[in-house]
Amino acid sequence: MRKNFNTANLPEIVFSSSEPAISQQISKLVKKGKLRKLIPRVYTSNLSDPEEEIIRRNSWMLLAHQFPEAVVSHRSAIEFKPSPNATLYLTGKNRRVYQWPGLTIRMTGGPNRLEDDQPIYESLYVSSLERACLENLMPSRVVDGEKRTLDQIVIEERLLMILNTRGETGLNQLRDRAKEIADQLGWEPSFKKLNQIISSILSTKPSDILRSPMAVAKALGEPYDPYRLELFQHLIGELRNHPFVDRQQKTDRQKAFSLIAFFESFFSNYIEGTTFLIEEAKDIIYEGKIILNRTGDSHDILGTYQICQDRFEMQKKAQNPEAFLELLRDRHRIVMKGRPDKNPGIFKQQANRAGSTHFVTPGQVTGTLKQGYKMLDALTHPLARAIFIMFLVSEVHPFDDGNGRIARIMMNAELVHAHRSKLIIPTVYRDDYLLNLKKLTKKQDAAGYIQMMDRAHAFSHWLEPTDFDALHGQLIRSNAFKESEEAVLVF
């Protein structure tokens, strides 16, 4: 609190003070009509807006001041806003109701904040999702027309969101932490109910305990994009009829494998608009230097290389659709670890698109990926399988960002597992690549996409990864680094 107020520019919220000098200044400002009382021990310099509006937009600040160390809990921890009855529910030392203009605060006595309860504003906290799920599954009576807890349907749908974005691993981690909280606080009945709900969601048939139509539908089978499945079936048919050449890898030695990984990472990031000079890329990858003002871009190419040069990682192969999803998330987490705002390893929660192409909706991501992966058994040739996996991931676009890079990583992992040459898309071939992807999506023209990818694989197999300068020179002579309007790919 400042010692002297600038009456021409007072903050909207002014808190009372135990310091006599400041208290006297506040009293003078109230008498002069510069401040008005809002709630106990709180004043406002806003003399025109309704009190309820002022309280609403400053609610977290006011709660932190009035109830330090309290926890926003129960339904308010999930909704993160006042209830339909304009009520916020908190847990603190005592049970009490506070009536403010336009807002009711219902405080219940309960446990202090836990280690994973998150701060909202200074000393005000909000229940973790695990704690909030347990709180909302407790018995609750109706007071003034509503309960402190949300309907079980809301909790089920929040759990489904965790499953869709983080997979079974994420949902089981939530269950494990909830059990720890229940054991610590004596909330075993609430956990028993939560455990039954999660077990039913993860089962292959619905249980009587589930109430949400979405949860029941999940237990019956995950939703998927039927148009994409038709598209995938069409691509499978074309791939089965294409006469692929068998191109064994030339990268038995780790040096050769790492050299290919360098340029694979360089070109894969270039396709996405993350462009570097070769010398800059070498500094990032080999020296660990982060380019000034390009921290995120630097981590993008470094994360891509980290996977691409790891033969053990690139040889991993999923044995079932669930394992495929986990592998996809794990690799995305590594590639995008330098961009925490892009939710590394977490499937998208908002729809995304590129131009006029709308990708699979968030609720259909896991179902479409699983159904698509099941189709892979129809393909035996490593390159056919790799081309299909690349398109599957690209077409679903399961993440907020990094979808193209992770699609190409999954493609090349299939080739490495089969001891075949990797497939690199050089800059000069970028427009052909993107155009044929779009034609397959929009017009079901699979032939152009397959021919383009087959030629890119032939080019990649032609490369000789003996040493850096020799390989770099070979790429220069093939026009690999030029833009598509400047030259064509030569090899």
Largest sheet: 6 strands, mixed
- List the total number of helices: 20
> Any idea how many domains?
3
Shape: elongated
Give the proportion of residues in helices: 40-55%
| Class by SSE composition | alpha+beta
Provide the gyration radius in Å.
29 Å
Description:
With 491 residues, the protein is an alpha+beta fold. The chain folds into three domains: 13-74 and 85-125, no CATH class; 152-220, no CATH class; 226-477, Orthogonal Bundle (Fic-like fold), CATH 1.10.3290. It is built from 20 helices and eleven strands. The protein has helices at residues 20-31, 51-57, 59-66, 74-79, 129-136, 152-185, 188-202, 213-220, 226-241, 254-271, 278-287, 295-308, 311-314, 321-335, 365-374, 382-396, 403-417, 430-443, 446-462, 468-477, and strands at residues 13-15, 36-39, 42-44, 71-72, 87-92, 96-100, 103-109, 118-121, 124-126, 353-354, 357-358. A six-stranded mixed sheet has the order 6-7-5-4-9-8. Strands 1-3-2 form a three-stranded antiparallel sheet, with helices on both faces. A two-stranded antiparallel sheet has the order 10-11. Strand 8 and strand 9 (124-126) form a beta hairpin.
